[in-house]
Amino acid sequence: MTGFKELVFSGVQPTGNLHLGNYLGAIKRFVALQERYDCIYCVVDMHAITAELYQPELKNQIREVTAAFIAAGIDPAKHIIFNQSQVSAHAELAWIFNCVARLGWMNRMTQFKEKAGRDRENASLGLYAYPSLMAADILVYRATHVPVGEDQKQHLELTRDIAQKFNNDFAAPIAERGFGEGFFPLTEPLIGGPAARVMSLRDGSKKMSKSDPSDLSRINLIDDRDAIAQKIRKAKTDPDALPTEEAGLANRPEAENLVGIYAGLSGRTKAEVLAQYGNAQFSAFKAALVDLSVETLGPIGAEMKRLKDDHAYIDGVLAEGSARARVIADETMTAVRDIVGFLRG
Ligand code: AQP
Question: Could you list the active site residues?
Fold first, then answer.
């Protein structure tokens, strides 16, 4: 689909324990994209209450994700950093998308099934509708590109389905208003690289996650040198040396994960990492991974800690970013209300 201004949008939930998976799968890539695109990066606080409603530390968690964006290298003067709840157009468009999305589509969402678990009857309606709000987050800016980790692929496919159905169902008013091929773009997911899905350090079959009860399963961005070293040293591995070729990582999920992390942190491919460390024992490879992790994550964690406590600065960045986001979102919503047929006196 052509004719849309290229724009990057992505979000991170302020649910605490921001980790290496969030960094390599999302935030590090946000930083790289800002050289080429206009970017909007959102702290999605409305998503954060879908699983656990009352979080006494929510305000500080919002500040922490904002601090992580800035500490990692996103420039809030050039790009927009804001928190979702300050721009009410997200909720308004999500309601319209609740009427666009079909129950059959929503029932296929695997993240809901995983997060609701066995106690599905007791999950919130918000958790179920989460992907519809995510589609609104992206499309309220008519964003064309969305960098995310692999776990979000299905939600982005749903976003495209929602955009397509909206464009089809309202084809006549959209064409009358001169919006060419469609009002909403079919957003491109930007998923990839060696660390699109970072796995738990304790179990190579589970994704590294904020909500894992074991802190040893993840490297938190604010972990200090000792914590990082201890977690990598204790990371689960198998008894064999590293292979020399990528194919040798098949059926070795923990080895593949550590090689992927090394590749993600160093900006190399897994093949390049194996060209250097093939035949190495895990003790030697882990020592190199500790050094690399401390070298790359240490300064980010330290800057995050400093910034997150500077409430005046962080809250100011979010207020300014929200004002800039609101201008774009309001323009979209004025057109959407008109296309849908709502009357404004
Ligand atoms: N393990 C991961 N590997 C690569 N990317 C990941 N992301 C999350 N986990 C990994 C990406 O980080 C971005 C922000 O994620 P989020 O905070 O909005 O939501 P999430 O995916 O629900 O995060 P968690 O850590 O997995 O939280 P819980 O424990 O609540 O499920 C997204 O781009 C995501 O793909």
Answer: 115, 207, 210
Closest approach atom of ligand 1 to CA 47: 18
Q: Looking at the CA of residue 18, tell me the nearest atom of ligand 1.
A: 25
pLDDT at residue 2 in the model: 61
pTM score > 0.85 for this model? yes
Residue 279 has pLDDT above 60, yes or no: yes
- The three-class DSSP label of residue 250 is coil
**Tens digits of residue pLDDT in 40-70:** 999 999 999 999 999 999 999 999 999 999 9
Q: One-letter amino acid identity for 227?
A: A
Q: Count other Cβ atoms within 10 Å, centred on residue 6.
A: 12
Here the tokens at position 248 are 């040798």
User: Which CATH number describes the domain made up of 215-306?
Assistant: 1.10.240.10
- Domain 7-196+310-340 matching CATH 3.40.50.720: the answer reads no
Give the residue, by CA position, lying nearest to ligand 1 atom 14.
12
Q: Determine whether the shortest distance from the Cβ of 16 to ligand 1 is under 6 A.
A: no
